[in-house]
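Justification of resources, computational component.

The compute hours requested in this renewal are based largely on the per-chain cost of generating structure records like the one below. Each record pairs the submitted sequence with a full structure-token output. That output is archived, and it is also reused by downstream analysis tasks.
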Amino acid sequence: EGGVGNPFSVGEERKFINKGSSTELGIYLRQEIKTSIDSKWTYLPNFRYDYFSLNKSSGIAPRFLLRYQYDPSLLFRSSWGKYVQPPKAEQTAKYYGNSNIKSPYAYHYTAGFTKDFREKSTQGLEFTNNYFYKDLKDLVISDITKNYSNEGTGHIIGGELQMKYSHDALSTQLVYTYLKSRRKIPGHDESPSQYDQTHNLNLIGAYNWQRWSFSSRFRYVSGNPYTPIVSSTFDSDNDVYIPTRGALYSQRFKNFMQLDFRLERKFIYDTWILTSYIDIQNITNSKNSSNIQYSYDYSQKEEIRGLPILPTFGIKGEF
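The structure output for this chain reads:
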């Protein structure tokens, strides 16, 4: 657990071949109900049936969505639902996994509204605000005695706001998400999930002038958490160092900022359109650390970064 493994030379060697096929069957019933033509309320009771052959599990997942159209420019909505996904193939494998693994599931709760300030126009401001909560159950975790078990739990809470504005040839969009994603497994304190990102901000802008198009995106995200290695112990039998892990996902990589730019030009002919473009991602060449590489004795470390500045040139034809 925690994404930090021991050197291969100290592990037990196990070889096996696992062959088979799997089937995932889903049946979904969606209904939209209004008590009258002029009613501001809309009820959407939905049901989904799933069958997963990997662990021979099946069940019904009910869902319900409620919408209230206060006036033509203001919409309120809320929803609740159960969502299920199958375990991975290796988690149910005969020799390496656990054939009794159950399918992890979650209850989703959302509430929000959309306000349209455009007043039946195609230009102006549109604002959306949503809040969400997820209660995670039967999460599959590593287990020394069973290989895998369903003893993991967790929850996710957060909110999102989205603003769209357009005026003539200019269009902009801002999307911001705040969330906390937590996990709990036996033997450890509650910790962030591996992909927990507290802040996620995207600002997008585009301007069209005649046959030219200019667009850009600014992105800011919190660094992903990772499990630190606090020390190491020398294993003389295998001539390697064994890492000692700190608290699960208790440290984070640095926050990341990225600026992208795209320039596009259209050439319109009688029967076809030619588009040429240049797209530059991460203009500032910011470092986006995603992993850590350690020295043989874990005394030194170096962060592994993602993509550097990436320019792309291209042409596209439409007939």
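Residues 67 and 218 are 33 Å apart (CA to CA). The mean pLDDT is 93.
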